[in-house]
Automatic annotation (TrEMBL):
EC code(s) of this entry: 4.1.1.23
Family: Belongs to the OMP decarboxylase family. Type 1 subfamily.
Domain Orotidine 5'-phosphate decarboxylase: 11-227
Record's keyword terms, sorted: Decarboxylase, Lyase, Pyrimidine biosynthesis
Name of this protein: Orotidine 5'-phosphate decarboxylase
SMART domains the UniProt entry points to: OMPdecase
InterPro entries on file: Aldolase_TIM, OMPdecase, OMPdecase_AS, OMPdecase_bac, OMPdeCOase_dom, RibuloseP-bd_barrel
Job description of the protein: Catalyzes the decarboxylation of orotidine 5'-monophosphate (OMP) to uridine 5'-monophosphate (UMP).
Annotated positions binding substrate: 17, 39, 66-75, 121, 182, 191, 211-212
One GO process term, biological-process aspect: 'de novo' UMP biosynthetic process
Oligomeric and partner information: Homodimer.
Pathway per the UniProt entry: Pyrimidine metabolism; UMP biosynthesis via de novo pathway; UMP from orotate: step 2/2
Organism: Bradyrhizobium sediminis
């Protein structure tokens, strides 16, 4: 979706990183209309959370399934075919050419959009080096973004630190989805490449993924509303 077509409220994606479906349902009820887009990742999916995708879609919410698929092409393709029936908007795969190619082919015209995870936002150059990579973060993110674009991937998961450079490479054809968002004063945790919501939007991010700063806040709804206000202000 072109950035100008994205409803401002949809730009905040809250990660439902919670231990049970009951806890997730309670969080969604608490957040009410302050949040329109949710992410379901490992913790909730493996706690029986995938049926929530349809449930949330039936409530008019959008859902991002963040399972970061990476396997042989055939297995990725069959997994994507199953996931495409759940009613989600986004699905992540790791940005390896075989994986991205299989996912794009398998999603077909289902309406599910494939996002390629470039380099996890908890990694810095030292982490890549320790994992055996020759390239640093910015070079690897850019190389993977170029491969993803050639393969017809719909969007990229990157840090907001890379958003401006990636926008120049991929234009507006691909959505930039950025975790590593930290409102001023909030704990960094294990994230290494971070920005505030306002700076991320100014850098060109389309969607901001926020987990702990919302779901672990004393008042999650107030935390989400504050981020929504920051996004609106940054959009001008
Ligand atoms: O590179 C990546 C890819 C995915 N994530 C996911 O986003 C949220 C961020 O949660 P916070 O609590 O706001 O740190 C989490 O679900 C990650 O799995 C990411 O952080 N970085």
């Amino acid at each position: 979706m072109q950035p100008s077509e994205i409803i401002p409220r949809d730009r905040l994606i809250v990660a439902l990183d919670l231990a049970s479906v009951t806890a997730a349902e309670a969080m969604v009820a608490r957040l009410g209309d302050s949040v329109t887009f949710y992410k379901i990742g490992y913790q909730l999916a493996y706690a029986g959370g995938l049926p929530l995708v349809r449930q949330l879609a039936d409530q008019g919410k959008k859902v991002f399934i963040d399972l970061k698929l990476h396997d042989i092409g055939n297995t990725v393709a069959r997994g994507v075919e199953s996931i495409a029936k759940l009613g989600a908007t986004f699905l992540t795969v790791h940005a390896y050419p075989q994986t991205m190619k299989a996912a794009v082919e398998a999603r077909g015209g289902s309406g599910l959009k494939i996002l390629a995870v470039t380099v996890l936002t908890s990694y810095d150059d030292g982490d890549l080096h320790a994992a055996g990579y020759r390239l640093g973060v910015s070079d690897l993110v850019e190389a993977r973004a170029q491969q993803a674009q050639v393969l017809g991937v719909d969007g990229l998961v990157c840090s907001p630190e890379e958003a401006a450079a990636l926008r120049k490479i991929v234009g507006h054809q691909m959505n930039l989805v950025t975790p590593g968002i930290r409102p001023a004063g909030s704990a960094t945790g294990d994230q290494k490449r971070i920005m505030t919501p306002a700076r991320a939007i100014a850098a060109g991010a389309d969607y901001l993924v926020v987990g702990r700063p919302v779901v672990e806040a004393g008042d999650p709804r107030a935390a989400a509303e504050a981020i929504q206000a920051e996004i609106r202000q940054a959009l001008g």
